[in-house]
Design goal:
The structure is a single chain. This protein is 12% helix and 33% strand. It has 488 residues and is mainly β. Strands 22, 23, 24, 25, 26, 27 and 28 form a seven-stranded antiparallel β-sheet that branches. A six-stranded antiparallel barrel has the order 8-9-10-13-12-11. It has a six-stranded antiparallel β-barrel with strand order 2-3-4-7-6-5. The protein folds into three domains: 285 residues, Thrombin, subunit H, CATH 2.40.10.120; 94 residues, Pdz3 Domain, CATH 2.30.42.10; 87 residues, PDZ domain (Pdz3 Domain).
Length: 488
């Protein structure tokens, strides 16, 4: 992260993904047969008639509203990003083109210039870019399409969707572009405009390859996938439809090599519009909050819970005094619907709840002990995320081994709390049942366990009942979840 020649800062990772400064515009122009007194000598077939003939007119309209971004990051802020140096994800965190450092060691006195893209959404200078483009910056400067430089300031950011609202002062007639009023279809032409590798005003074209992509960057992933070429420096730039409307804000690329390979991702306009509106009007985002820790309901977990199917989202822990707990939702409940519509997965639940205003009452379909009930929850406001605390259990006395797990009472391990047993060594559990060293097992088959003896008794009881797997409630850091552990 400190090397002066690392790839762009404005690119962030997901699971094998490189966030790249992106800017893509795609236009579609339909060729039609010209009128005349007689048929053309070579009539166009259907495929030829639908072939795009160029994007120049669209580009002339939208390109002036797109600009390059340079963000100055200094000292300790160089280590303040979401992904830290040395992290497994650091290999995918493409830092933007940066000016060379001065050769000093770790962070002190270091300065980097990150490059990205952005676009004006109103003539008074309000503009949009990615949060990761300007994150931790001390100074932001933009370069417009006509080559003029202006200072910019941050109005507000939303790290969860990776969007930032910035403002350029000094005039009230900046060219601007609107967000699209409807989502694109897969196969629609798109145009990207941006600042790849500092080459401002670059235009590329392609199509919408897919919608609603989850690329593993967070709970609010809902990306458009496009194949318009975008690279480092394009992040924060717009992707347009053939009407010159912004359909997405370019944010990431899939790139094993660091360069473009035909897969890029953009934040949809319908998401960006809502976020930017709140940032402009309120300076922050107020999201609905259910107050539960959830996990996917696998077939193994469904069997352990006595359920016939694996549809829904498993509640691993309702947070104390949270909206769900107040409404009576308990650990082990399965949420199967929201407002009578079936849930596909936890990502859909998180996104739909977050789209609602705090104070909204919603009806959830909840399975408990095989019976479904309707529960009405009044949403709270999503709080700031609490830091994750990792358990660091030292070697302990009075440990016992059961199911390949070396265990010790949590009360004997500093920082592990007073409830449960700490996994000192996960000989069998690691990678098999999803239990790792440092996890705290709180319950086995619904019974609290606070010592290795408690654990062994609960496992023995599960075996006597003829079960092949036993359901365990496990805490990893600050997150609680259920694990179905084989008893073989």
């Amino acid at each position: 992260m400190l090397e002066s020649q690392r790839a762009c800062r404005t690119c962030r990772p997901g699971a094998g993904l490189s966030r790249a400064l992106l800017a893509s515009v795609v236009g579609i122009v339909i060729a039609v047969a010209a009128g005349g007194s007689g048929p053309p000598p070579h009539p166009l077939g259907a495929a030829e008639a639908a072939r795009p003939v160029g994007f120049a007119d669209i580009v002339d309209r939208v390109k002036p509203a797109v600009f390059g971004v340079r963000a100055r990051i200094e000292g300790d802020a160089l280590a303040g990003g979401t992904v830290q140096p040395g992290s497994p994800l650091d290999n995918f965190f493409n830092r933007p083109n940066k000016s060379p450092g001065d050769g000093r060691t770790p962070r002190e006195g270091r300065v980097e210039m990150a490059q990205g893209s952005g676009f004006f959404i109103s003539p008074d200078g309000h503009a949009v870019t990615n949060n990761h483009v300007i994150e931790h910056s001390k100074v932001i400067e933009i370069t417009t399409d006509d080559g003029k430089n202006y200072p910019a300031r941050v109005i507000a950011v939303d790290a969860k969707t990776d969007l930032a609202l910035i403002k350029v002062d000094g005039q009230g007639d900046f060219p601007s572009v609107p967000f699209a009023d409807r989502p694109p279809r897969v196969g629609d032409w798109v145009i990207a405009v941006g600042n790849p590798f500092g080459l401002g005003g670059t235009v590329t074209a392609g199509i919408v390859s897919a919608r609603s992509r989850d690329i593993g960057t967070g709970a609010y992933d809902d990306f458009l996938q496009i194949d318009a070429p975008v690279n480092q420096g394009n992040s924060g730039g717009p992707t347009f439809n053939v009407d010159g409307q912004v359909i997405g804000v370019n944010a990431a690329i899939f790139s094993p090599s660091g360069g473009f390979v035909g897969i890029a991702f953009a934040i949809p306009a319908e998401v960006a519009r809502g976020v930017v509106t709140q940032l402009r009007e309120k300076g922050s985002i107020a999201r609905g909050w259910l107050g539960v820790q959830i996990q996917p309901l696998t077939r193994e977990l469904a069997d352990s819970l006595g359920l016939k199917g694996a549809q829904g989202v498993l509640v691993s822990e309702p947070l104390a005094d949270g909206p769900a707990a107040k409404a009576g939702i308990a650990s082990g409940d399965v949420i199967v619907s929201i407002e009578s519509e079936p849930l596909k997965d936890g990502r859909e639940l998180s996104r739909r709840v977050a789209d609602l205003a705090p104070g909204t009452a919603i009806k959830l379909g909840v399975l408990r002990a095989g019976s479904e009930r309707a529960v009405t929850v009044r949403l709270g406001e999503l709080p700031s995320a609490a830091p994750r605390v990792a358990a660091e259990p030292p070697a302990a006395s009075n440990t016992k081994t059961e199911l390949g797990l070396m265990l010790a009472p949590a009360g004997e391990i500093p920082g592990a709390g007073r409830q449960g047993v700490v996994v000192i060594d996960a000989e069998r559990g690691n990678g098999v049942a999803g239990i790792d060293t440092g996890d705290v097992i709180l319950e086995v088959a619904g019974k609290a366990v606070n010592s290795p003896t408690d654990f062994s008794k609960a496992v023995a009881a599960a075996r006597r009942s003829g079960k092949n797997k036993v359901l365990m409630r496990v805490r990893s850091g600050e997150t609680k979840r259920f694990v179905a552990m084989p008893l073989g």
